[in-house]
Amino acid sequence: MKIFEFEDLIMGLRGDGIIHAYVKNEAVVNNQMQRNIINSIIELKSGDQRKYPTIVEFGEFISISDDVVQHTEMPFKEHVLSISMYAKNMADRILAKYYTNRFKTSSKFVIFGVFEEAVQYSYDKMKEAGMRFTPIYPASHKEY
Q1: For labeling, which of 29, 111, 122, 134 is most exposed (least CB within 10 Å)?
Q2: pLDDT at 140 over 90
């Protein structure tokens, strides 16, 4: 299993084919983080041209930088099948809503309060795309 770790971000490809991004505590979501996410997705796919579902999970005390506004059309859609945001508490939900509402992108973000629902949504998208995968049940976010 490949994992990429940055100062403010951990990216990994789960055994079921879902890319999991964890934004670390007190991180700032900025242009560089978005680039790190996209570059990590490309590396995790190892040349595979298929799109993979991605789940983004936030740590505590996350903020969004102003430079994100200028880079809202980062090419997520070219590399991912779907983007789910796991909002485990009200602060995460507010952050996710702010990001998706303030920065209108061509990528559709879906917000879930239960991690297993984000995983199931990803599985549904994989089925729709005709991807073969081995589900992990229970759909734990502690897999790696």
Answers
A1: 134
A2: no
Structure tokens belonging to residue 69: 């506004």
Structure tokens, 109: 């973000």
Model pLDDT for residues 58-68, shown as the tens digit of each residue: 999 998 888 87
Burial class (CB in 10 A: 0-12, 13-18, 19+), 25: exposed
d(CA 14, CA 105): 26
Q: Would you tell me how many other CB atoms lie within 10 Å of the CB of residue 140?
A: 12
Burial 49-61, CB ≥16 within 10 A → b, else e: eebbbbbbbbbee
pTM metric for this prediction: 0.87
Q: Tokens at residue 81, please?
A: 């099948």
Q: Is the dihedral of CA 95, 97, 103, 108 positive or negative?
A: positive
